[in-house]
Amino acid sequence: MADTLTITDNRTGRRYEVPVAAGAIRALDLRQIRTAPDDPGLVSYDPGFQNTAACRSRITYVDGARGELLYRGYPIEQLAEHSTFLETAYLLLAGELPGADTLRAWTREIVHHEMLHVKVKTLMGGFHDDAHPMGIFLSTMGALATFYPDARDVFDEGSRRLQILRIVAKAPTIAACAYRHLRGLPYVDPDNTLSYTGNFLNMLFRMTEVKYQPHAVLERALDVLFILHADHEQNCSTSTMRAIGSAHADPYTALAGAAGALSGPLHGGANEAALRMLAEIGSPARVPAFLRRVKTGDVRLAGFGHRIYTVCDPRAAIIKRMADLVFAVTGTDPLLEVALELERLAGEDDYFVSRHLYPNVDFYSGLIYQAMGFPPEMFPVLFAVPRTVGWLAQWEEMLLDPEQRIARPRQVYTGAARRDYVPRDKRKQEA
Ligand code: ACO
Fold first, then answer.
1. Separation of 308 CA from ligand 1 center, angstroms?
2. On the CB side of 72, how many CA atoms lie within 13 Å of its CA?
3. Is residue 401 within 8 Å of residue 286, measured between CB atoms?
């Protein structure tokens, strides 16, 4: 059987045969389908890119029907169990798990780049006291482009590698400074003797201790959460990273745009929205009334639903287990009962089941973050820090892909046909 698709255009009666490769046809093959010589050709209309593959990628695989997530082929469950965030970051960026020496060298290089230029801190100090930390995070990331002009040379391998190190290393430092800014606390410098997430906790929460010692359970929980958030193929923020990068902008600028996309409540801002929603519901007894409001279209369930996953989000199951470990240290959050009741009742209701609405990665993560002492405004930032790795891996893959072009979608124009300019005194008066 040939790997082709035969299309009959009933407008003209013509037949076309287009190749099918790896389950895809090329959209450009549709352009030959015309009704007249001046017809620009058929396009596919796909708002929200619901069924359009914009790239070939070797990084992350999501099987929505099976609830499966693989980084470079490795199941997320195994990485969450056995790996560390920095090792997973190396895997996503380099394609293979590092050997012991490589991992040591990679860790040393990251640690070396964790500090911020003193003027970056001055810049951050200029934000309003109540500035949202996600706004501080993405603005500071964008501003780093002015500190590292060598980043503009996106086709220089050495420069790319250096910017990747800088971004992965400085993301937690910027995030911690954004948090300290919110709290009115002085910034804390990195401690090179701690792990990536241990040091992050140090920069966030250290007060007057001579040496900050992170709690081992909380340090590991944060590391696992970071592994779960490191990449998720062509989601909204990653597509933004690729789109900006496709114009050959430097990675700091592209990353600021990606973080902007992530901040939206339909994407990485959903963890903040989920926690606020659980607080608004307040008690398990009030869940049925809230679900009735959702069903009338009055509100959306934050932290529920996913474009790709139709049976479950495998990250949500791991996070739910992590919550038990964290709560054993911090004490249980009463909102957990609300969350569990919400998940239970939605799982029994055909409205939610028929629409494949299950908890996603953002539903339980906010409860863990709150238990660890983070205010809700910090939740999207905690998503952005590990996602820098996925954004950078996808950005570099895009740059090195000879098939990629500047991102420039087509449109179906539905506006006015050509018409002549009307002088102001000849226009209809507004009522
Ligand atoms: N609560 C209530 N109803 C919902 C929800 C929700 N969270 N999500 C989808 N629906 C309903 C829609 O109303 C629609 O119903 P209809 O067919 O009767 O009109 C149907 O389910 C399909 O919804 P769409 O919005 O078309 O689905 P889409 O794939 O475009 O959206 C999204 C996916 C944005 C994740 C959506 O489920 C949502 O808004 N969820 C809440 C926000 C959220 O948690 N985002 C985080 C996603 S994960 C991440 O970014 C890391």
1. 11
2. 18
3. no
Token couple for 344: 């239970």
Give me ligand 1 centre to Cα 384, in Å: 21
Task: Tell me the CA distances in angstroms from 345 to 161, 181, 311, 365, one per residue in order.
Answer: 48, 40, 16, 20
Residue of minimum CA distance from atom 4 in ligand 1: 300
Helix and strand element counts for the chain (H, E): 17, 5
Degrees, nearest 5: CA angle 144-147-148: 90
pLDDT of residue 255: 98
Residue 431: pLDDT band (50, 70, 90) is low
Question: How far apart are the C-alpha atoms of 222 and 386, rounded to whole Å?
Answer: 10
Three-state DSSP state, 27: helix
Structure tokens at 160: 């790319």
**CA quadruple 304, 381, 180, 276: dihedral, nearest 10:** -20
The answer to whether the beta carbons of residues 262 and 384 sit under 8 Å apart is yes
Instruction: Tell me the per-residue pLDDT of 152-174, one tens digit each, with 9 for 90 and over.
Output: 999 999 999 999 999 999 999 99
Distance, CA 304 to ligand 1 centroid (Å)?
Answer: 7
The pLDDT tens digits for 350-407 are 999 999 999 988 888 988 999 999 999 999 999 999 999 999 999 999 999 999 999 9
Nearest-CA residue for atom 9 of ligand 1? 305
Nearest CA to ligand 1 atom 29: 307
Pocket test for ligand 1, best of 50, 294, 357 (most atoms within 8 A of CB): 357
For residues 268 and 362, the answer to whether their CB atoms sit within 8 Å is yes
Q: What is the pLDDT, as a whole number, of residue 362?
A: 87
Residues in contact with ligand 1 by the CB-under-6-Å rule are 235, 266-268, 270, 294, 300-307, 355, 357, 360-362
pLDDT-wise least confident of 65-74, 224-233, 301-310: 301-310
Mean pLDDT of 264-293: 93
Phi-psi region of 119 (alpha: psi -120 to 50; beta: other; left: phi over 0): alpha
What mean pLDDT do residues 118-131 have? Answer: 96
Using pLDDT thresholds of 50, 70 and 90, give the confidence band for residue 269. Answer: confident
At residue 120, the pLDDT reads 97
Q: Which atom of ligand 1 is nearest to the CA of 274?
A: 44
